[in-house]
Specification:
mainly alpha, 166 residues, rod-shaped, 3 helices
Length: 166
């Protein structure tokens, strides 16, 4: 046994046990307090991290919801714009067709007026030609006595024919 008292490990163990027996409570209490304080700090940090994680998840959900709402609104705006563009195109097409019809009617009216004017000119020319031919024929066939009467009748003939045509 004497060899046991000469070993350094034995005395180290004995001194360690004596140290804890004499000073254990004095050392253990502050050490336990430090460890408890550190554990409380870690627990608070974990609680804070959990709270921050919940807030971040809530913010992520809000951002996703806002993104979905923005996409829905963007689709709505695009659809509304497409409908407005189609309406504007239809309106422009209708206005163009109306303008074409109006121009076509104006052209037809001008053509009809030109035809009436041409027909009137032909009638007037035919009347004048008939008048001239009648005048020559009457001059050749009627004696000179009734010449004044015939001249008056022939002078009134164009205006009478023009009134009748109109």
């Amino acid at each position: 046994m004497s060899s046991l008292f000469h070993e350094a490990g034995f005395w180290f163990t004995v001194s360690l046990v004596l140290f804890f027996v004499l000073f254990g409570k004095k050392v253990w209490t502050p050490l336990a307090g430090l460890l408890d304080a550190h554990a409380n700090g870690v627990r608070q940090d974990l609680d804070e991290a959990a709270r921050l994680r919940r807030e971040a998840e809530q913010m992520l959900e809000d951002a996703k919801r806002d993104r979905e709402l923005a996409l829905v609104e963007a689709r709505s705006v695009v659809e509304h714009s497409r409908v407005q563009a189609e309406e504007m195109a239809a309106r422009a097409r209708t206005e163009a067709e109306d303008l074409i019809r109006q121009r076509e009617k104006q052209a037809q009216d001008r053509i009809a007026a030109a035809e009436r004017a041409a027909v009137d000119e032909v009638r007037v020319a035919a009347i004048e030609a008939a008048f001239a031919a009648s005048h020559k024929l009457i001059e050749q066939s009627v004696p000179a006595v009734n010449e004044k009467l015939i001249d008056d009748a022939l002078a009134a003939l164009p205006s009478a024919l023009t009134k009748r045509v109109a």
